[in-house]
């Protein structure tokens, strides 16, 4: 269990280097880049934010897109609060580590004690490595200079897709992703940068509404 948690933490934590490079390419300085990893600490939202900024998006629009992408962590927290049952004094610290990877490791454990250990080891390893590699990536990007000349501006989107792909386990997940991509790419030429990702977020409630409607029809037909 500890070995698996360490493996997840190390594998994903190293991706912070790509975030540091991407953030520097989007115009953020080293302190701003490191602050995002220290205080936001959710990779997909961080990449979405700097990606929108790099495309020339409004900072408020970029932040809104990152916020909506990060709301999934609140739902993880509802489940983990029951599973881990940590002390009230520790909850603010534990909440900062509620992300995809720590949730997956904790939920895979057979007992509460194992879940707590898995969550803690994954969170600690990932947080330390993510922030260290973010710093190294930002410093390295400053030393490299022009990001476009090296093609490193593609690192962020590539890592983002690598983090997202394993989550698309069900047909509904893939349908939502497909609609979101279609909306985002289709609206990219006609809307300001950062706005298409907000519109793409409507894919999830649209699919849920359609599924609910179809379920209601089937129940009506069975009567």
Automatic annotation (TrEMBL):
Q: What InterPro entries does its record include?
A: Brnchd-chn_aa_trnsp_permease (IPR011606)
What's the short name of a Pfam family annotated to this entry?
AzlC
* Segments traversing the membrane: 47-69, 117-141, 147-168, 175-208
**Does the keyword field hold Cell membrane?**
yes
Give membrane topology per the record. Answer: Multi-pass membrane protein
Keywords for the protein's UniProt record, in alphabetical order: Cell membrane, Membrane, Transmembrane, Transmembrane helix, Transport
Where in the cell? Answer: Cell membrane
Q: What's an example GO BP annotation here?
A: L-valine transmembrane transport
Which superkingdom heads the taxonomic lineage of this protein's source?
Bacteria
Which cellular component terms (GO) are annotated to the entry? plasma membrane
Q: Which family does it belong to?
A: Belongs to the AzlC family.
Q: What is this protein called?
A: Branched-chain amino acid ABC transporter permease
The organism of origin for this protein: Streptomyces pacificus
Q: What is the organism lineage in this UniProt record? A: Bacteria, Bacillati, Actinomycetota, Actinomycetes, Kitasatosporales
């Amino acid at each position: 269990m500890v070995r698996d948690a360490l493996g997840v933490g190390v594998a994903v934590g190293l991706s912070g280097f790509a975030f540091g490079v991407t953030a520097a390419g989007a115009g953020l300085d080293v302190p701003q880049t490191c602050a995002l990893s220290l205080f936001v600490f959710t990779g997909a939202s961080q990449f979405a934010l700097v990606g929108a900024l790099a495309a020339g998006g409004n900072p408020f629009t970029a932040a809104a897109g990152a916020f909506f992408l990060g709301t999934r962590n609140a739902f993880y927290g509802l489940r983990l609060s029951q599973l881990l049952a940590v002390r009230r004094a520790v909850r603010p610290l534990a909440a900062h580590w509620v992300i995809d990877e720590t949730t997956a490791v904790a939920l895979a454990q057979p007992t509460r004690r194992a879940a707590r250990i898995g969550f803690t080891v994954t969170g600690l390893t990932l947080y330390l490595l993510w922030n260290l590699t973010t710093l190294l990536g930002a410093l390295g990007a400053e030393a490299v200079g022009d990001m476009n000349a090296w093609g490193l501006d593609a690192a962020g989107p590539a890592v983002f897709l690598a983090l997202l792909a394993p989550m698309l386990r069900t047909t509904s997940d893939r349908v939502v992703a497909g609609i979101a991509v279609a909306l985002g790419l289709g609206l990219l030429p006609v809307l300001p940068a950062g706005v298409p990702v907000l519109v793409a977020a409507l894919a999830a409630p649209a699919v849920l509404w359609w599924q609910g409607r179809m379920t209601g029809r089937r129940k009506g037909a069975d009567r």
